[in-house]
Design a protein that fits this description.
Oligomer: single chain
Low-confidence stretches: none
CATH superfamily of the largest domain: Uncharacterised protein family UPF0261, NC domain
Distance between the termini: 37 Å
Radius of gyration: 24 Å
Strand content: 15-25%
Helix content: 40-55%
Mean pLDDT: 95
Strand order of the largest sheet: 7-6-8-9-13-14
CATH class of the largest domain: Alpha Beta
Structural class: alpha/beta
CATH topology of the largest domain: Rossmann fold
């Protein structure tokens, strides 16, 4: 069957604009199906009507239209649309997804997009893409491209038609590239390794990537700032990777402490559940980054490192590092595959070498002792180095080659 670009919209508010975009996509050689997520009325012409969308969620569109529980019915329509989009994907007919809308339409369409796996073309055409806080909400952990229209999506003035034509050309071009799947990502035949990293572990990350690739592995890095490392967990759970290197699992502690790098409650669990090997280093785990608007009085007294204008790292307290170690132990004890934890004794990143005011050997050892006491099947090794030293990176690569699947 012909592969289709799925166009998500609310025809009760964006009918003429949606059909213009649909026709523009079709004129460029791509099949396009309109999925209506309207909640307040019927607008003819959809390939998948709002009634069908509601039915896919087990709901009756008549009940949705008379309901005043907007949050509830929005969730119901998102659920139905996500189910139908997933059905397209399973049938092999989904070439890509494009959404059109303002605030509500963008929230709904991007929720549907994030329910689809990494590698499916996704484009959100939104008049509210630049509003503070909404862009990150729209994208979340999804590989979603935002097209900011600037002008309102209302009527069909020539500037808006030009914008919609450009959006049509964009999704048509994206759809020409085969979607990435777990199977196609393995086209090289090399074992795939996911690696978390962030700026203060970059030197180690470069060394590890270079040497693992020289040994026949393919390494995919993820910035561990709280979003991409969440996405890494999802992709691990979907089966994209054969092994994991955790250079920067600081999002585990930040989730517990409420820092800006918080990476969700599932961080550091996917590899363990699947039983794939993982080698872990504590990059950035002894640092926290609470929002300055939420600083407590004692935060101002802590040792700090100004990474840039937006990010300040504070040294954790003794109590906090023990608590974080307990969280690590709880997660790692659930691992069904080989797990090696390398403990650098001279600092856990470029932020805290022995010469720095951020270095605290005794406090770091509190983490080590707690982890050692509470973990059952984790191999823990000390390395007399800073995490960014070449000797530590060498030890880490050696550990990887010890437990990773043969390249």
């Amino acid at each position: 069957m012909e592969r289709v670009v799925l166009l998500l919209s609310t025809l009760d508010t964006k009918g003429p604009e949606t059909f213009y975009l649909r026709d523009s996509i079709r004129s460029r050689g791509s099949a396009c199906a309109v999925l209506d997520m309207s909640m307040s009325g019927e607008f003819p012409g959809a390939d998948i009507t709002s009634a069908e969308t509601a039915r896919a969620a087990g709901e009756d569109i008549k009940d949705i239209r008379v309901s005043r529980e907007r949050k509830k019915i929005t969730g119901q329509m998102i659920k139905g649309a996500a189910k139908l989009a997933s059905d397209f994907l399973k049938s092999g007919n989904l070439a890509g997804v494009i959404g059109l809308g303002g605030s509500t339409g963008s929230l709904m369409a991007t929720d549907v997009m994030r329910a689809l796996p990494f590698g499916i073309p996704k484009l959100m055409v939104s008049s509210t893409a630049a509003l503070p806080g909404l862009a990150t909400r729209y994208i979340g952990t999804g590989d979603i491209a935002l097209f900011h229209t600037v002008i309102e999506i209302s009527g069909l003035p020539r500037p808006l038609m030009n914008l919609l034509d450009r959006a049509a050309a964009a999704i048509t071009g994206m759809a020409m590239v085969d979607s990435l799947t777990v199977q196609s990502s393995r086209g090289s035949g090399k074992p795939l390794v996911a690696m978390s990293m962030f700026g203060p572990t970059e030197k180690c990350a470069h060394f590890v990537r270079e040497h693992l690739e020289a040994n026949g592995y393919e390494v995919i890095g993820f910035s561990a700032a709280g979003i991409c490392d969440r996405a890494m967990e999802t992709m691990i759970s979907e089966g994209f990777f054969d092994a994991v290197v955790e250079l920067a699992p600081g999002g585990v502690g930040e989730e517990f402490l409420g820092g800006m790098r918080a990476a969700g409650p599932d961080r550091l669990t996917a590899a363990g559940k699947l039983g794939i090997p993982q080698v872990i280093a504590p990059g950035g785990v002894n640092l926290t980054s609470p929002r300055k608007s939420r600083y407590k009085p004692e935060h101002y007294e802590r040792r700090k490192f100004e990474l840039d204008e937006l990010r300040t790292f504070l040294r954790v307290s003794d109590e906090e590092i023990v608590s974080v170690a307990k969280v690590f132990a709880e997660k790692l004890n659930q691992a069904a595959g080989p797990t090696i934890f390398l403990f650098p004794t001279r600092g856990w990143s470029a932020v805290d070498p022995p010469s720095s005011h951020m270095f605290d050997k005794d406090q770091d050892r509190l983490f080590f002792r707690t982890l050692e006491d509470l973990t059952n099947f984790v191999t823990i090794r000390e390395v007399e180095a800073n995490l960014e030293d070449e000797s530590f990176a060498t030890a880490l690569v050696k550990a990887c080659l010890e437990v990773f699947p043969p390249a």
